[in-house]
Amino acid sequence: MRDQTFNRSATEASVFLNGLINASRSGDRTGAIEPVAVANIVAAVSDLAFLIDDDGVIVDVSVGENLEHAALKGCAGQRWIDVATVESKPKVDAMLRDAATGKKIRGREINLAISEDFELPAQFSVVQVGPSGWTLALGRDLRPIAKLQQKIIDLQRSAEREYARVRNAESRYRMLFQLSSEPLLVAEASSLKVTEANPAAVSLFGVPNSKVTGADLRDLFSDDSQVALQEIIQLARVAGRSEPTKLVLPESWTELDATASSFRTDQTVHLLIRLASASAPIESSTARLPVIEILRKIPEAFVVIDNDRRILEVNESFLELAELASAEQARGQRLDRWVGRPGVDVDLIVSNLREHGAMRDFATIVRSEQLGHEEVEVTGVSAMHGSSLCYGMVIRVLRQRATLSLPRGSSTFAKSVTNLAELVGRVSLKELVRETTDMVEHMCIEAALELTNDNRASAAQILGLSRQGLYAKLRRYGIGDPIDDDGVDISVPS
Q: What's the whole-model pTM score?
């Protein structure tokens, strides 16, 4: 029956199309809509159109420009219910039954299994056309809407994750702020209105929290402290933080050490005021590092970094060398942003300082913010910074290149140079260059080993060689102990 329906004569199809076109006539019109116009209308209102006979077989397929797919044309000759996916088959059956009764079905979502690798979600409207009971199904491609919905879902999930992250961060901040034994005040930098005070601060002032929160910061301290208070506020606004300053409470005349730090939230600058008894002064980063005050004015560049290679303090000479405007631009940044090869020189310096406690005259370069560079020598020491190590370094600019000296076998090298000079005219230039290259290579390897205290892994890193490459050259020149850093005999090639 299906084949009979699909293979209906062209005459019958033509009669159906003419009936469809003539059905659009109005009572007083004499002409019919042209078939091309009907086709254009169908293409305009749908991405996909099925012409379905009374047995549910797709007689013809119209595909819009935005939905060109070769497999769609293959739907012709198949029952529409067979083209639909399992969950969509009941919908197709119901739509065809309703259309047969004269109902116009709109907005039903049908998934079409066009091929094994192509499934099309579409929204179909179905209407019966012509006297023969044939049906026209007009579909809209839902894939762009599905993509948009997926983007909305992804954005919503991303917003939920960000909200959860911010909420967790705020919870941690609230917990630390409330449980801190150090009196803390948060005030707006513009109005100096206190927005938050932790229990330790409320207890220090000896008044209810309602009289601290919302009060003017200046009203919480004595008249004699107003100048000092304005100084730390101004310093926090400009430099980001201030040094400990003495402030006095108005009634109890208790003397406090106060520091101010600025931070920005919601486009508003706030001040964090830390208070402590003058008998137990606030410990700041510079208080933990008193050597900074001593070395601040020396002509050599000086820098202190933590275990993560991030800068804690610098002096004015370092700022001049790196061409920075203020120390705030350097604090918190990794030292290898300006010193040495990124990820190499500073790591090597720190590893030696961690192992030996001190190192001197490490040759490297300093790159400035204006893309200039200077050859320098670094001398450093390690020290405790709280519960972890920090590293202090003096960086000296090499105004002129020092005469290269050999740490080992210098007399042998000098004799070799003399011998080379005597060979001029006796052997070819090519052989002289090869001999000279070997001597320079020998000298550089020995200098690297001397610099790294015979740490061959570090020496290979300095020289830009692999460890196996360095071992091959050590065997070639007969340098050092044949046992490597890991206890392996390198005298025999692997």
A: 0.35
